[in-house]
Amino acid sequence: MSWFTRKDKGINTPTEAKREAPDGLWYQCPSCKKVMHTREHRILAYTCSNCGYHEKIGSQEYFELLFDQTRYTELDALMSSGDPLNFVDTKNYPDRLKATEKKTGLKDAVRTAYGKMNELDITVAAMDFNFIGGSMGSVVGEKIARAIDHSLETKSPFLMISRSGGARMMEAGYSLMQMAKTSARLALLDEAGIPYVSLLTDPTTGGVTASYAMLGDFNIAEPGALIGFAGPRVIRETIGKDLPKGFQSAEFVLEHGFLDFIVDRKDLKDKLTSLFKMLS
Amino acid sequence: MKTLLEFEKPIADLEAKLVEMKKLAVENNVDVSAAAASLENSIEDLKRETFSNLTRWQRVLLSRHPDRPYTFDYIENICDEFIEIFGDRTVGDDKAMVGGFGKIDNQTFMIIGQQKGRNTKQRQKRNFGMPNPEGYRKALRLMKMAEKFGKPIITFIDTPGAFPGLEAEERGQGEAIARNIRDMFMLKVPVICVIIGEGASGGALGIAIGDRVLMLENTWYSVISPENCSTILWRTWNFKEQAAEALKLTAKDMFENGLVDGIIPEPLGGAHLDYALATQTVKKVLLETLEELNNIPSRERILQRIEKFGKMGVVI
């Protein structure tokens, strides 16, 4: 059994003797491996100072980045999912929801809020990928629909920040119809002439791409974000070939004419402000 | 050559026996009418029993039955006249999405639908009923044309999904579907959608925003196919039956959950057994539905369409 234990001395370090950096003080970029102070990382809007990699962040970080003095009013903060189909796969759906809620501290995969951005009124919906892959079920659809209603009532521009794998399977038909529900409200917003900016972040795929994420007056994206309808694995299986490098990246989607521009997260707030000012 | 599904076989066996019995009776000049009548009754009973107890997965199999009527079969059987229109005016013509003006009992409709193929060559031509972005753009072009000329729209949905290919992504599959969904809400003319086979996810929804969305009895409509659902949640295809149960994807399920507006009955045993009856039932429902919708002012109809989909979903 000697090949299961180390024979060389000095390699085994007991856990308590390990010296670890204090948690949360340093951030290592997963792309270029550069290590930076978390405070610096936060100041750079969670992008890498070396290679510009955009870390996947959630609704809380976007709200902090966009709203003046981080002051905003959240809409429907307590709304949560039912289990209309009594869906059971390897786990039952309510248990999955509860476990995810505990792990993330979130109620579902989107949060919506309104407030001031550089003193302009704005309504924002931001998705959280941590919550079952940012999947869209009834709550996501309903909260977005109501946020659009708020935008319509207050005549404030609507910003949708998508980060999602697509529709949520556990609500099956209901999830599918959220694509219709949200798009219907966007049709009204469009008719009312209120600006809608859709920001696509890494990743935005499936039913989200095939509904509200692609319906902006301005469809914009963060650099390097994966954007597509079908996921890369499915396409690879369909065509039986490897996919070209950069396929479905934000840059690729821009080159094919489906994005208005790509925006560095550090410039997001000011660029949106300029845009809305030009439109008003 | 007729294709038989597993649960259709016992019925087919009895039917073959009946034919044999009648043949023998003629050859040997014996009277078997009593026995034949009894066998006919058994067949009827077995059919009723089989088709009232189908599992969800069996319905999925029926919806994909290779003999099932497709979009063009409905068009041929219910239209007195039909002029097919091609192309999206941008990239090309998608053979998986067909459409044109058709006349049903003196009423002109714009009829649009996904089209599957019957044999290998046709299936390739029709891309197995999986449209590319140009298919959705062609559909929208035709719908806007219908709106311009004040003609009501019928869509027939029968797709295993929008095509997940490389070029489809390059040409904006997501954007094409999204635009259709949004713009269909604002169409000023009545829109009636009928799921005639498979209603797979966004690929189906891209032409399925209507004042009335109806499902034929043996069809399915959901966010994902049972096979793909099984692959994602169980990491193998083998749980497709469970997935079909969990997704609650049949016409009955979708109607009970308020996600579609009605169910159109099929001939006993499925639409493929009697094209005439199946298509005439659809025709009747379409004309009645149009009459109902014509009574609603256009703007009101649009708002009702938006409100109907707005109510879908369960939140706490």
From TrEMBL, chain A:
Binding residues for Zn(2+): 29, 32, 48, 51
GO cellular component, one term: acetyl-CoA carboxylase complex
Enzyme Commission number, as recorded: 2.1.3.15
Entries under Pfam families matching the protein: Carboxyl_trans
TM annotation in the entry: none
CoA carboxyltransferase N-terminal domain location: 25-280
Pathway: Lipid metabolism; malonyl-CoA biosynthesis; malonyl-CoA from acetyl-CoA: step 1/1
Catalytic activity: N(6)-carboxybiotinyl-L-lysyl-[protein] + acetyl-CoA = N(6)-biotinyl-L-lysyl-[protein] + malonyl-CoA
Keywords assigned: ATP-binding, Cytoplasm, Fatty acid biosynthesis, Fatty acid metabolism, Lipid biosynthesis, Lipid metabolism, Metal-binding, Nucleotide-binding, Transferase, Zinc, Zinc-finger
PROSITE patterns reported in the protein's UniProt record: COA_CT_NTER
Record flagged with keyword Heme: no
SUPFAM superfamilies the UniProt entry points to: ClpP/crotonase
InterPro entries: AcCoA_carboxyl_beta, Acetyl_CoA_COase_Trfase_b_su, ClpP/crotonase-like_dom_sf, COA_CT_N
Zn finger spans (C4-type): 29-51
Cofactor(s) annotated in UniProt: Zn(2+)
Compartment(s) of residence: Cytoplasm
Enzyme class: transferase
Binding note for cofactor: Binds 1 zinc ion per subunit.
Gene Ontology molecular function terms on file: acetyl-CoA carboxylase activity; ATP binding; carboxyl- or carbamoyltransferase activity; zinc ion binding
Any one of the GO BP annotations: fatty acid biosynthetic process
Record note on quaternary structure: Acetyl-CoA carboxylase is a heterohexamer composed of biotin carboxyl carrier protein (AccB), biotin carboxylase (AccC) and two subunits each of ACCase subunit alpha (AccA) and ACCase subunit beta (AccD).
NCBIfam families: accD
Family: Belongs to the AccD/PCCB family.
Role: Component of the acetyl coenzyme A carboxylase (ACC) complex. Biotin carboxylase (BC) catalyzes the carboxylation of biotin on its carrier protein (BCCP) and then the CO(2) group is transferred by the transcarboxylase to acetyl-CoA to form malonyl-CoA.
Name by which UniProt lists this protein: Acetyl-coenzyme A carboxylase carboxyl transferase subunit beta
Organism: Pseudarcicella hirudinis
Gene that specifies this protein: accD
Automatic annotation (TrEMBL), chain B:
Ranges where the CoA carboxyltransferase C-terminal domain occurs: 38-292
This protein's record includes keyword Membrane: no
InterPro entries the record matches: Acetyl_CoA_COase_a_su, ClpP/crotonase-like_dom_sf, COA_CT_C
Family the entry assigns: Belongs to the AccA family.
Compartments in which it is found: Cytoplasm
Pathways per UniProt: Lipid metabolism; malonyl-CoA biosynthesis; malonyl-CoA from acetyl-CoA: step 1/1
Keyword annotations of the record: ATP-binding, Cytoplasm, Fatty acid biosynthesis, Fatty acid metabolism, Lipid biosynthesis, Lipid metabolism, Nucleotide-binding, Transferase
Complexes and interactors: Acetyl-CoA carboxylase is a heterohexamer composed of biotin carboxyl carrier protein (AccB), biotin carboxylase (AccC) and two subunits each of ACCase subunit alpha (AccA) and ACCase subunit beta (AccD).
Name of the featured protein: Acetyl-coenzyme A carboxylase carboxyl transferase subunit alpha
Listed GO CC annotations: acetyl-CoA carboxylase complex
Keyword check for Cell membrane: no
E.C. no: 2.1.3.15
A Gene Ontology biological process term: malonyl-CoA biosynthetic process
UniProt cross-references to NCBIfam families, sorted A to Z: accA, AccA_sub, PRK05724.1
Task of the protein: Component of the acetyl coenzyme A carboxylase (ACC) complex. First, biotin carboxylase catalyzes the carboxylation of biotin on its carrier protein (BCCP) and then the CO(2) group is transferred by the carboxyltransferase to acetyl-CoA to form malonyl-CoA.
Catalyzed reactions per annotation: N(6)-carboxybiotinyl-L-lysyl-[protein] + acetyl-CoA = N(6)-biotinyl-L-lysyl-[protein] + malonyl-CoA
One Gene Ontology molecular-function label: acetyl-CoA carboxylase activity
PANTHER family: ACETYL-COENZYME A CARBOXYLASE CARBOXYL TRANSFERASE SUBUNIT ALPHA, ACETYL-COENZYME A CARBOXYLASE CARBOXYL TRANSFERASE SUBUNIT ALPHA, CHLOROPLASTIC
